[in-house]
Write a structure and sequence with these properties.
Blueprint: H1 7-21, E1 25-31, E2 44-49
Antiparallel strand pairs: 1-2
């Protein structure tokens, strides 16, 4: 099977999921098909909790 280009799905799904848990969570794609980075795990996402101002 060819690689599934899941980046576009994750860009929609993960931020909505994270904000449902806590509105301060910010998501960032580090490496995900079709745009993978050498030396980075195959499907990598970063979830950060923003500090209250």
């Amino acid at each position: 099977m060819p690689l599934f280009p899941c980046r576009s799905v994750g860009l929609v799904e993960f931020p909505v999921f994270a904000r449902t848990i806590d509105a301060r969570v910010v998501t960032e794609c580090l490496s995900c098909p079709p745009e993978t980075q050498q030396g980075t795990p195959y499907c990598s996402w970063k979830f950060t909790l923003e500090e209250a101002e």
